[in-house]
Amino acid sequence: MSISRDTFDPAKNYKRVRYHQDRDLLDSELNEQQDIINNERKKLADILFKEGAIVSGFGVTVAANVLTVAEGLVYIDGCLERVPGAVLTYDPAKTSGADYVYVELLKRVIGKRLGGLRCGSARLPTFPTKRCAAHQT
Fold it and tell me: What gap in Å lies between CA 62 and CA 75, rounded to an integer?
């Protein structure tokens, strides 16, 4: 499977794609429409949320040396991501300092050629991860 072309350019500030009834519909037109919608959604969400903002959840309870973090919703890289809860332990002898809990997002592009390899092959390239410290706004 291949994508014919990537025509989206956010600098053009397009708001929609018009389709012609007497012409075949191209995958690039549908992809560009989806990219326009995603770009507009991200611009609005960037106004409402800071990168790494906790939208809801992530309640914390402490008992002995066990820290329980509830499931939550965090804004990362233009998307609201649901993050499962976790149970963490810490050294009770440690009486000073700070520990940080962060969300790590791994993104993979599926369907494009990367370094001569097709995604889905046994030898996928390594992608950088995005780390955002979760903080309350």
Answer: 25
- Determine contact, residues 112/31, Cβ cutoff 8 Å: no
Tens digits of residue pLDDT in 80-120? 889 899 898 888 888 787 777 777 777 776 665 444 444 33
Distance between CA 131 and CA 128 in Å, rounded?
10
The tokens for 28 are 């690039």
| 30 domain residue, yes or no | yes
- CA 11 to the chain's CA centroid: 22
The structure tokens listed for 63 are 């008992």
Cα distances from 118 to residues 28, 82, 124, in angstroms, run 19, 29, 8
- Residues 97 and 82: their CA atoms lie apart, in Å, by 29
133 domain-assigned: no
Considering the domain boundaries, does residue 53 fall inside one? no
